[in-house]
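re: that chain from earlier
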Amino acid sequence: MLCQRSKPPTTSRNGLRGRFPGGQAVNKPTVKHMEYGLLHWMAKLSQLRQVSVKHIKKLADIDAERDLKLAPHLKPAYLDQDHFAKMNVASAVAVLNHSVGAAIRVLVSLGRMEEEALTTAWFVERVYRWFTLMTSRYIGTAADAGCLGESVLLHSVDASVPRALEFKLMLHLITLSQFFKPSRKGSYDMDDSVDLLEFVEMTKAAQKNSVEAAEVELLTDSLLDDDAPSLDDVQMESLVYVAGYITHSVSKKFKLCGTCRECLQAEPVEQNYQLLKLKSYRSLSQPNPLTRLSGLVVSLLQHADSVFRAHEHDALTVSLASLTNAALDKCQLANSVPHCHELQKRLTQTFLMLRLRITLRKLSSKAKTAKAKCGSKSVGMRAAVSQIR
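^ sequence. v structure.
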């Protein structure tokens, strides 16, 4: 073994994440290194020099203002330097994640972030790729976790700011020192990160129409009046990505004819699909396995999102059936969508279910934050009598 300290790759990722918010940077390689073909991509970005956590913080701030997020699993709390948070694998996975790199690249392309953030995106994607290979359960794709966890941090003794070449060689050192072995004890521990698309699945109970026809008609009429402001470019990128997942879910869950399936992907959307392209889990040289849906479906779900945002304040009282009927009644694309298998209704209902869950999670998070201020009886009593004079 090249290193006497033996720990799993999760420790390496936690170490990188723990040092990352502190301001440590990774310098770009010299011209001499580029002559040997090392990190040749940086020759096109000669003005970019360092990796910085400020770009990820800016991404978190941009997402905090929106419900449809570019990186839904990223939380601002993960970027704070806390001793106990450094030991949490879920926070390290959320920060050093492929979707974070893709979101940064989208913001750069939209002009919302400076071009030097591309170096940070590369760093995040590189660490994510390495961690995925090292912890994969399949012997054909990666090595099993087992040793050399903190080798990445050993170079900090000699240099507090490693160069890109040193960083690359450290990853090579750890990768080549592993041994191939499948997992015999089942799956690895599930992390506690929350992903946006985990809540898209519709339950049987949610599909049942428990609202009487008269009540549905009354509520639907009240939803036909107002409209919400249009989405910006960042929200449209997220909407196109989520709409692709909704389309794939509907086509997989329900039996659709050839006409309906053709309508889902005919004339693919030509704008705001950079996030969909960058979040592909395959190489850019290979076909993107993610669904690139038609512009018609994007317009349909964009209209449904507008109806929902106009009445988001009634999320606790309005029913899914009322929202669906309101979106369908106001939609002007009904004649362009096949009616044989209720495709328009199923797409709209599935998407609105997702939006309801996002809003309810947001309200629940606010309620938990308020309760946390009175975690004990003494603190609660102090807060209760603080206004009494």
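The chain is about 50% helix and 0% strand.
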